[in-house]
Amino acid sequence: MRLQSLRTLALLFLISGLATNVAAQEAREYINARSASDATVPPFSGAVLAGNTLYLSGTIGLEANQQVPSTAEAEARLVLDNVRNTLAAADMTMDDLVSVQIFCSDVAHYDAFNAVYRTYFEGDFPARAFIGAGTLLFDARFEVQGIAVRR
User: Model's pTM, two decimal places?
Assistant: First the structure.
């Protein structure tokens, strides 16, 4: 009898876990979504919200003419504006970020990026990596990727 009770309990946990997994998959929301059927757009969405967690794709900061700004500070503002806009589309703010990765073509831009980065937060800073990455798309200086959790 005890073995059967354990099996029943294990089965209930398994079913509960599957139901939770299915619910999590149903709860996905794509921000700036791009479809695999559209070959004219890059093959990624801007972000994916799964439950309360938003996974932001890497983004760069280009001017309206698709050119890299002349200064590192101007580019940092554009890339961080992109991050902020993506978060806003999910009803989140920069202070909801829990992890950020900055890929940088030349780590000599570290101080310039940080001077701008500091102005985008009101609370504690998220965990972060600043990674020397070599050449980035469009010869950008910065690409930013992050994870945010809704409070």
Answer: 0.81
Nearest alpha carbon to residue 56 among 31, 22, 28: 31
Alpha-carbon distance 76 to 93, whole Å? 17
**Do 80 and 60 form a contact (C-beta atoms < 8 A)?**
no
Give me 2's structure tokens.
């005890």
Give the start-to-end residue ranges of the domains of the chain. Answer: 28-149
* One-letter identity of residue 115: A
pLDDT in tens, 12-55: 444 555 445 555 555 899 888 787 888 888 888 899 999 999 99
Mention every residue, 6+ apart, whose C-beta is less than 8 A from residue 31. 45, 46, 47, 48, 49, 54, 86, 89, 90
Could you tell me which CATH class the domain 28-149 is placed in? alpha beta
Give per-residue pLDDT as tens, 117-135: 999 999 999 999 999 999 9
